[in-house]
Amino acid sequence: MSKTRIKYICSKCGYESLKWLGKCPECDDWNTFTEEIIETSKRRITTAKTKVSVAKLDEISADKKERIKTGIAEFDRVLGGGLMPGSVILLVGDPGIGKSTLAMQAVAQVSEKVLYVTGEESDAQIKLRASRLKLVPDDFFVFPETDLGHIIAAINNVSPAVVVIDSIQTIYRPELENSPGTITQIRECTSLLMEEAKRKHFSVIIIGHVTKEGMVAGPKILEHIVDTVIQFEGDAHHSLRILRAQKNRFGSTNEIGVFDMREDGLHEVLNPSELFLNGSERKTPGSAVTSSIEGTRPILLEVQALVTTSNYGYPQRVTTGFDQRRLSILLAVLEKRAKIRVSANNIFVNMAGGVRINEPAVDLAVCCSIASSLFDKAINNKTVVVGEVGLGGEIRTVNNIEKRIQEAERLGFKRVIVPAGNSSGISSTPKIEITSVENLTDAIKILLG
Ligand code: TYD
Ligand code: MG
User: pTM for the complete prediction?
Assistant: First the structure.
């Protein structure tokens, strides 16, 4: 006998409670609890009459499975070399960022059968998108459906090598009493799809929306189930898009893919530095070029700062693409260690090009761009600044220094400012001048005289 019961589940971390709570005790977030109907049945494990076979490790044949290449090399790179047969990939991102476009462009060029299940658009809309993207796929089946039973029937019918589910929030199992998009439905549908995928060896790309709070509905819950989680991010006002792996059972998580969203779809950006540096030839106070490692590739980008006098007692600190708290720390170091007074100024920091950077190696460039704007003196535009700033005002070493220098050299820069601790790790590069700095005061003196 099964009976139904109501439970409250945190849509962020999956914490379960018997009564509604305003704040989740697990992840400390507010207003995340949703009502879910839970079916409970007697839990008895039956072992009699069940025949199981267990294999020894050396008896198992593990032929290296051929990965399926998609039409997008950047997409394959993020996945670790293509789609692994039988794997489940969760593709998440803000609504309208281009998830459907990316999935469509990627799978349309797969040489095997593809089933595109859409719960959001009609088949005619899919057709229109394909023609907008100038795609003429061969074995490409479109199925506008939301009932998981019908979807699995279609999979049995078509036997595709790749299935796209657009999106998981619209798919449901009618047997459950919950409405589509609830945690129970999402979890149930994902695990059923996963089981089917493992059994029939097709790959599934599941598209998931991010909610207003910036989280996938039930992200933690799905992260455990699926093999790979990739996030598609970007700024709605810029055409730049970045694809990042957050979890990957079949590859590394530090590769990124860079795309440019144009009228006719996503274009791969093979030289991101050139895109980010576009237009930085001018010599403006407040601008510094730095080199950040994104994935395994170095990307040169421009940090811009604007320092103005505040007329109020409470100056503004606004950042785009950079952590605001990190900026507060850097400002404190500038004041205390480099003796540069900024506490009464409004400070705006911007990573040009709409990219978001979390790497500490850009610290020094942020500090220097602020000093440059404050003193109204431009930094030489052929100089790249790299280094993490410590609380003592010391410049700390960064990883991959050689890669960063090579990229600067490749793009015609003349000088790189590097942390003193890194200088021993650099083999000679005659074409570019390398200046090592020990602390923030020295760096600012060298750059701004
Ligand atoms: P879409 O893939 O539908 O986003 P998602 O599935 O993540 O919600 O794409 C949304 C936006 O992308 C839409 O506003 C139009 C734009 N777009 C282009 O700029 N070029 C294109 O070729 C396509 C298909 C869409
Ligand atoms: Mg979509």
Answer: 0.77
